[in-house]
Amino acid sequence: MQRTEGLRAIQVGRVAVAGMALLFLVGCAASQTMISKRNLDVQTKMSETIFLDPVGPEKKVIFVDVRNTSDKDNFDIATPIKDAIAKRGYRITQNPDEAHYRLQANVLSVAKTDPTAARHRYVPSVARARHELGLDVTIGLDEAIVRTARWHRGG
Question: Is residue 52 part of a domain?
Fold first, then answer.
């Protein structure tokens, strides 16, 4: 009887020590995460660029609706977007029916990005087209930019 109680006490002690060690390790991981993110640097990245055709001043009316469904409740990007649009001569309206344009955006994620990763991800390359399709660059970059701008203007 006494030996069973002794074994039981040892087992309870082991479980208690293991539980405390687990709590300590979880606390260390949370502390490490907190320390590594103490200087959180927020950067924005647009997922798609849209060019608008030029219109007269009477049509430069835009309805802007920016929603934040990320886990960062205090992230406000709507105000800087509206300010940037207003600086370009557009009037912001609260009524979507009177707007000539509508800008609707949803912020899905707010996180720190690695600038070097973005640099490698967005470097244009024709290597795959050359390898898989046999295509080759026949005009220079300057001429390509001029042609692209002309195409966007409709000319």
Answer: no
